[in-house]
Design goal:
Low-confidence stretches: none
Number of helices: 5
Oligomer: single chain
Number of strands: 0
Mean pLDDT: 82
Shape: elongated
Order of helices and strands: HHHHH
Helix content: over 70%
Length: 80
């Protein structure tokens, strides 16, 4: 497995899939970031940005599904 653009794409896709399957309310409530307008989020801006990323990645569901289908197709067609 070499360092190629295709492998970097698959890595990004896997990381995006990992963020999409997280249960946001349960995961973020543990850190007090389920509400991004809270005072806890204002005291910890890095955590607030991580929480914002988890909220924003939810808009990528349909494009990620399409990318998954394309990736599976190419992996089946061309091999690994």
């Amino acid at each position: 497995m070499g360092f190629s653009l295709w492998n970097m794409f698959k890595t990004g896709l896997l990381l995006t899939n990992a963020l999409l399957v997280l249960n946001r309310p349960r995961f973020l409530a543990k850190y007090g970031l389920d509400n991004l307008n809270s005072a806890h989020a204002a005291r910890h801006p890095v955590l607030a940005q991580a929480g914002g990323l988890l909220h924003a990645v939810q808009y990528l569901k349909v494009p990620v599904i399409v990318c998954n289908i394309i990736t599976i197709f190419f992996e089946l067609l061309l091999g690994s």
